[in-house]
Write a structure and sequence with these properties.
The chain has 81 residues and is an alpha+beta fold. The chain is built from two helices and two strands, in the order H-E-E-H. Strands 1-2 form a two-stranded antiparallel ribbon. A hairpin with a 6-residue loop joins strand 1 and strand 2.
Amino acid sequence: LGHPSCLQFTANMIISVRKYRWQCIECKCCSICGTSDNDDQLLFCDDCDRGYHMYCLSPPLPTPPEGSWSCRLCLVEFHSK
C-alpha cells in the first residue's frame, strides 16, 4: 500500500481507502466492471480514489467532467449532509 500522507491523500480518501481494497494507479481497474481495459476512459473519484470507466457509469459520461468529480458512493457519504 503506502502511507496515505505520503500519497497526498485527502481526508476523505483516507477514510475511504480503509473501507475497500485500494489499488495503485498501475493496478487500478473499474469498480463497476472490474477491468482495466480502456484506461484512457477511467475516471478517478476525488474523494475515494476508486476508478470508473465513463461508459460504465449510469448514466454514462461522454467526456470527463471539468473540475473535481465524486462517485455516487462518495456523494452519499461525504456530500449529502
